[in-house]
Each structure stands twice: as C-alpha cells, then as structure tokens.
Amino acid sequence: MSLMLFLERVYMAIVIVFVKLLRRKRYTKYKLDNIKEEVELHNSHPSILVQIPMFNEKEVYRLSIGAACSMDWPLDKLIVQVLDDSTKSTIRDLVELECQRWKIKGLNIKYETRNNRNGYKAGALRDGLTKQYVKDCEYVVIFDADFQPEKDFLWRTVPFLISNPELGLVQARWKFVNADECMMTRLQEMSLDYHFSVEQEVGSSTYSFFGFNGTAGVWRIKALHDAGGWKDRTTVEDMDLAVRASLKGWKFVFVGDLAVKNELPSTFKAYRYQQHRWSCGPANLLRKMTKEILCCEKVSLWKKLHVLYAFFFVRKIIAHWVTFFFYCVIIPITCLVPDIHLPKLIAIYVPSAITILNAICTPRSFHLLIFWILFENVMSLHRTKAAIIGLLEADRVNEWVVTEKLGNTLKTRMFARSHRKPRPKIIESVNVLEVLVGLFLLYCAFYNLMFGTNHLFIYLFFQSGAFFVTGFGYMGTVVPP
Questions:
Q1: Which long-range contacts (CB under 8 A, 24 or more apart) does 123-127 make?
Q2: Which residues of 96-124 are buried (b: 16+ CB within 10 A; e: fewer)?
Q3: Which helix (H) or strand (E) holds 34?
Q4: From first to last of its 481 residues, what are the pLDDT tens digits of the chain?
Q5: How far is Cα 432 from Cα 393, in angstroms, rounded to an integer?
Q6: CA pair distance 158, 153, nearest whole angstrom
Q7: 141, 48 Cβ separation under 8 angstroms
Q8: Contacts for 300-309: CB closer than 8 Å, 24+ residues apart
Q9: What DSSP character marks residue 361?
Q10: Which SS3 state, helix, strand or coil, does residue 127 take?
Q11: Catalytic positions, written as ranges
Q12: Where are the beta strands (DSSP E) in 85-202?
C-alpha cells in the first residue's frame, strides 16, 4: 500500500512539474479577455444563478451574501438565491433582513426556506433549481456560506463555459482567511494546498478527472441535469455529481490562479466532523458507483481505471489506511516483536518522499513538517474509521454535521481572543480514542527504549505525545459561542 501511494505521488509530481515548466496549464489556453469583449460588445451576457446554501450561519451570512451580491455582472442577468435551512428563527430573520437590504439596492435576490432538511445541502440545492425563475438561467454558481468571491469571479469563470460547450464545470481554488488562527489551521492549509496545487491541477491538465469541491464552482445547468441532478445518497453530494457528469462525457476545468476566500475549521470538534464526512462519503460512493463506472460506455477504459484506482482507491482509502495502520499500528508492534524487521526503504525513505511531495506545496509552513506528520497520523485514526464505515455502510454512514464557521476576519479574531472563555475542564474535552492509541504508542516506546536495538522510541514518544495533545483537547482554538 505504501508503494501504491508512493507511485501515485511520484506520478502527480512528474505531471505537475511538466505542466508548470512548460506552462501547459489547461486554463491558460482560453482567451478570456477576447470572450469578455465579445460578450459585452453584443450584450449577450448569459443569465446566472448564484446559490448560497446556509444552516444557522450567524457569524458569516452577511459576508457571503455581500460578496455574492457585489460580483460584477449585469443585474438583470444575475439571480442570487439564499437557501436557508436554519432551524433558529432569530437567524432566519437576520438572513432574510440582509436579503431585503440587498433587494432594496436593486439586486435580484431570493430568500428560500424549507420546512425540513431532507437531503441536507444536496436537497436544498436541488429544490432551489426547481423554482420558476431559474428556468432561463444557463449557469449556476455555488458558494458555501463562508465563501467570499472577488468582484471579477464571474468574468474569470463563466467565459470558459461560453467558449466551450463541452465544459460542464469550472472549479476555482480556495484561499484561507484564517490559516494563521492556530497550529491546526496551518496544518490544514498544508494538506489542502497539495490538493488544489497538485491533485486538482493534474486532473484538469491531463483531461482525466477531478472532483467538484462543492463550492466556488460554476456548473452548466444542462450538464447538471444531464448527470441526474443532485442526489443525497452519500455525504459527498458534490463528488457524486462530478463523477456522474464525467461519465456522461462532460469535461471540467480547474482555474488554479483564481482563489476564493473561505474559512478553515479552527476547533478540533468541527474539523473531526468534517473529516469524517470527507472520508466516509467517498468510500461509500465507491461502493455505490463501482458497477456504474465499469459499465459506462461513454468514457474510455483508461478513465474508468483512473477514477476507480487513482481517484477513489488510492487517494480516498489507501492513503488513510497506510497512514494509520502502518505508522500507528505496524511500526509500534515491530518494537514488541523483535523478529520482525522493517526495511529502511519502506520504513523511512518511502514515507519521507511521500511526506515531502505533500508538504512542498506550502513552503511558508515547511518548518512545521514534523508537526504536520504527527497531526496527519492522529487524524488518520478518524479517516480510517470513516472510510471503513463508508465501505461497510455501517452506522454514521450518512451522518451530516455542518462545519461550524466562526467568521474569522481580522476584527472577529481579535475580538474572540480578547473575550475567549477558559478551556473546559479536561474531563469535558477528552477524546477517548486518541488517548487509548496514545497509551499504546507510549507503551511501545518504553518497551523499545528498554529492550530494542533501534531508535524507534524517538518517533513513538513524539507520536504518542501528539495523540495525547489531541486526546485531551489541546488542539485547535476555543472560542465563545
């Protein structure tokens, strides 16, 4: 499994170097300025729907609505649709009032609510597309509630779709406004930078496949309907839609130089729930779609193998299993069973190469590499468990907990820090699984220190410490409610 993951990382590294050195990024082939001039000359602006799904977003609703309403596009060709599933009446009133404020300014903004949360985000987006005023729209833009697009976002994405009728999706990358909030957000940034800078860029540049990130993307509504629309059978409705659209022959483009501001979860509880959803959903989707992918006649055998093997199996399952079982189970057990010998190639060199290839995309945080390794190993516990739940379709397979957003602009962060509550008592913040794994690693470390002939105890002491730090609730921030 380590070698499978290593070869996948090396392949993507070779492709991304080739793409950047030869400037072969796919989105640079389009002449956006020429398309913009032609559209403005003939006043042929397409009608665009902007969807903003929300759920009790007290801290960020004003930022997201304001950013979406401020985008540069003719007002008679733009509809902003706020899909509010909030369960708190006070928050609903605030969001509706904000929509009314923009409506007075001349924006065509629609405030939509439901009496239930059937399908969660997918259900809200699906219901939003059934409204009568949407029938004339050609494209739909989706922003999660904490995303703040720049004014020129539409001009830097929609022309791709105008110029190429085979394109079904244009995906932008993410820019994190609170990356410096705490150590945990810095480490998240390292992982996500690799995803956008390498995984998404390689998928787009090789015309193979990459997943929709669920936000900061523009869909051709025709492609969305052709793929079967939004489905809520898994917790990764965005990936589900992208796979189905790809099987229908629609092409995607990733615009790596267009970043949309958003917020990383800065509390460990919120991050853990997010990672459960992001790990369980793809595994469950693989279970549900394997036969559909294999039987599809519109795509080549190579693309089928790429989606099943590289995109799903290696990146969404093997990557988690290797990280947890190898680094947190196999290596510690070898300290207790001296007859087992791990070759340095597998135990040191391959993992080091994988780590460097992952972390090199965030040079400003390269000095945090050791902390990133330790934290990723801790999180692999939850990701592995979630992937197994998804494959077996066990309990919590459809668990959906909205990632808490805190509105981490500079002023809000300063206010939160000056009014921060004391940390809860240890007993209230203990994560039992992390503590148990930490105790196991600590035992193996002491055993290796006393009886071992190698120096694995150094790694095991640090790794057990990382599990204890997380297990006792000292990872991430504590903010006021």
A1: 123/230, 123/232, 124/53, 124/83, 124/85, 125/51, 125/53, 125/83, 125/230, 125/237, 126/229, 126/230, 126/232, 127/83
A2: eebbeebeeeebbbbbbeeeeeebbbbbb
A3: helix 32-42
A4: 888 998 999 999 898 888 887 776 666 677 888 899 999 999 999 999 999 999 998 888 999 999 999 999 999 999 999 999 999 999 999 999 999 999 999 999 999 999 888 999 999 999 999 999 999 999 999 999 999 999 999 999 999 999 999 999 999 999 999 999 999 999 999 999 999 999 998 888 887 778 899 999 999 999 999 999 999 999 999 999 999 999 999 999 999 899 999 999 999 999 999 999 999 999 999 999 999 999 998 888 888 988 999 999 999 999 999 999 999 999 999 999 878 888 877 777 888 888 888 888 888 888 999 999 999 999 999 999 999 999 999 888 888 777 777 664 444 444 444 444 455 555 557 899 999 999 999 999 999 999 988 888 999 999 999 999 999 988 888 655 5
A5: 24
A6: 8
A7: yes
A8: 303/208, 303/209, 303/246, 306/208, 306/209, 307/209, 307/243, 307/246
A9: T
A10: helix
A11: 85, 238
A12: 109-113, 139-142, 167-176
Both structure tokens of 284: 């469950």
Structure tokens at 37: 């001039």
Residues 374 and 160: their CA atoms lie apart, in Å, by: 41
DSSP state letter for 267: B
Cβ(254)–Cβ(201) under 8 Å?
yes
Q: Kindly report the pTM of this predicted structure.
A: 0.90
3-state SS, residue 109 = strand
